[in-house]
Write the structure tokens for this entry.
Amino acid sequence: MPLIKPVGLGGSVVVVTGASRGLGAAFAEALASEGAKVVICARDRAGLDSVCKKIVKNGGVCSGHVVDVTNSTEVSGFVSNVIKAHGRIDVLVNNAGAVHRFGPVERISEEEYSVCMRTNVDSVFHFLKSVIPHMKKMGKGVIVNVSSGAGRRAHANLSVYAASKFAVEAFTQAVARELEGEKSAVGCIALCPGGINTGMRAAVFGMEDALKQQSPESVAAVLRDVLLGKVGVPNGGDVLIRQGAVVEVSDNLSK
Ligand SMILES: NC(=O)c1ccc[n+]([C@@H]2O[C@H](COP(=O)([O-])OP(=O)(O)OC[C@H]3O[C@@H](n4cnc5c(N)ncnc54)[C@H](OP(=O)(O)O)[C@@H]3O)[C@@H](O)[C@H]2O)c1
């Protein structure tokens, strides 16, 4: 598959979901520092405000919006408001995510299953439906779905999380093929980071383990390089990231 087109980040409009903390916050900060106008969403108003405040203090542009990404009405309303306010969305980063307690499948509750699937999969579906028609109209744009190492190879005791991330990979590949058929310059790729030092990692494996993982900033630097075209990624492909470095770029659709 052809490589996704680089994005001139200066003045571009970038939407990052789940950016009230963790990896999403690092994505927002890294892309804002390249001149992107960053629009972030999550449920925690205070977290969003603190991320925006830091970005603005460093000379960037950021606005934070309370959105539950599992709610299709909230997502479509948010996307229309971004387009009304900025006229465009150049990059969408589907980052919001949730995990469940570490344990075998029979001990995972239906509620945990539902939260994980709704946050990791339904949200991607809602955002794809809202943003793709707009990007097609513009004739360009990049969608980045945040998968995981677990989206490439399932781990024991994280079965539902792995299933949700396999679904994210499936959306990425199918949508890339659909966009390719359109002959548009809209691309869709996935990032597959290994463990990252965020609250999610600490919640599952403990703080001591989290501190040994790659930093969210190092993963965000990889996304910046991908968008700038310094790391070429084929449409529908994914990027495996460990210890802040690109370990492999897969051209899944040409195999
Ligand atoms: N940490 C790791 O080791 C690791 C490794 C590989 C991939 N990932 C992936 O990286 C992404 C970011 O994870 P993280 O480690 O930064 O996790 P995190 O620290 O737990 O942050 C998760 C983010 O998602 C948001 N979110 C969760 N549910 C939401 C909802 N219903 N509506 C809107 N926002 C929601 C949270 O904001 P609110 O609570 O304010 O809504 C928060 O901003 C996820 O997709 C995760 O699966 C993480």
In short: The radius of gyration is 17 Å. The pocket of NAP is lined by residues 18-24, 42-44, 47, 67-70, 95-98, 119, 146, 148, 193, 195-196, 198-201, 213 (CB under 6 Å). The longest strand covers residues 185-193.
